[in-house]
Known about the structure:
Structural class: alpha+beta
Number of helices: 17
Largest sheet: 4 strands, antiparallel
Number of strands: 8
Strand order of the largest sheet: 3-4-5-8
Order of helices and strands: HHHHHHHHHHHHHEEHHHHEEEEEE
Distance between the termini: 78 Å
Amino acid sequence: MKEQSPTHRIKWALALILGAFVILASSYSLINPLHEASDELRHFRFVRVLADTGTLPVQGEETKRSQSHHPPIYYALGAALTFWIPDQGEPYLSRPENPYWGYRFWEVGTDNKNMYLHGPDEAFPWRGAALAARITRFVNIAFGATTVVLTAAIMFTIFPRRRALGCAAAGLVAFNPMFLYLSGAINNDVAAAAAGAAITWTCVLILRRGLINRYVVALGIACGLALLTKLNLAFFLIIAELALLYSSIRSGSGRRAFRSFVVANMIFLGLAAIISGWWFIRNQVEYGDPTGFVAVTELWGVRTPAESFGLAWSEIPSAWSSLWGRFGYGQIPLPGWVYRALAWLMAAGGVGAIIGITKPEKERLGTDSGLQPSSLILRFLLLVVLLYFVVLFAYMLISPAGSMGRFFFPGLPAFAGLICYGWATLIRFVASVFARWPHPRVPRPAARRRKNNLEVTAAMPDVALALATNVGMLAFGLWALVGFLAPAYAIPSQVSIDDLPNQSDITFSDPDGPLVRLLGYRYDAESIRPGESLGITLYWKTIRPASSNFVIFSHLLDDEGIMVAQRDTYPGLGNYPTLFWRPGHTFAETYRLHLPETAYAPVTV
């Protein structure tokens, strides 16, 4: 049986990563109810306006506000795939809201994490607006998969003999819970990540192999499409110009370098302008501003940068947590220790990357290879990361909604590549230190090893890193999905009514007749102190759906009848409104009442 080559094994590994990403991102998409992701409903309105009218929405002239300030490429793709679905009118423009959404939003848990109420109209088999939204979500999964592949391609190009690093970087991007979550939702941030990855890879090719025309053409096309994806990708023009300038200088001196730079810019900027120029002309005509950003600030509000530096700086932890996993509008966080552990891991990778860049390993490029060393291109990746941190922070200075890690997604492939390289550098450093320690000599076989086996042996630390990164991140992505996202939107499960702690038989009715029975209850404490909380668990059995949504309220009264704590919610802690009750469903749920710090004590309640 013929042994597979290392390159063939890497292709299979990347295919497995890509397949796992698609499955997991699809799972996030199916579990996450429609329009619960940040701004998803407004992104979807843009798609439906294009699909229904064939024209772009105009800021300030919409019945319901959409993300009409964004460039249209993602929305046009969604519209092209869903235009045949009948116009649903108002249902796709608004959703019934949960009035208790965001209750103690900073806490890890499942209490009223849903912004909207979700009913049978969203259930499978999908129809109408639900079908259009699901298809548009799957478009984003394709963009996410593209980002994963291009992240690997960047590292393959930088380290052609260490391709396992590409698989490690691909896994770090692919199984990031927030990237999975947004890949399964409607937004243009994942498309921006794909565009950023494409420009980064094209620049890496130019830096590595020189100013070759096909790479310059690809760079122009990538930048043109990027400018039609999201405005913050315009900052990649700086990166592209630096790559062209360096490669021009390397191609010759004096007039030759200047001529190469001018010709490359004519091709690059010309193609970008041909592809995206119409969008900026249209903005100038509509808003008197080629970017349309002035209209954005008028509609959405803006901060004064000189006055908001301290506020933006304080929001960096929020941006960090939302880069990894803070679902919805931030009201579904992971435990705080997760973000701290990630910070330490990424810091270690950053230190290793700096060590590797400043003291690079010798590369066997050959005197006539024409390839530029990896250390140079790693500095370029570092520049991309730093630039997009500056872009993110600048947006935080001017926008109240700026502290979202998804705005860093265009720099995520470069970040993942640097971090994985840094980890590999630290592993090799530790291995070299260990190798210098005194140890018993082991006789070596006299037979010569094949070159292929030597390369495999040298690559073993990188392979181990790629395996650990992918397995660890895959487990992280699954844990965030099963442990936090799914429970936040789950309908209460059926429970047994045997051995209820405090049985009761109280029937609640509406004008149409009996609605639900209270079967029992329990408290989780006999006494509490000011600042503590009391959990009240009620056991319900539904009789039928109601004709309107009723509220469950729990009031804690003192011995004089004065209310000291209150809790109002729709059933299912927001996820199971009475309009959508299933007949005969027995369920239990706990309502937590928080006693104020200022409550009088002692008192009997």
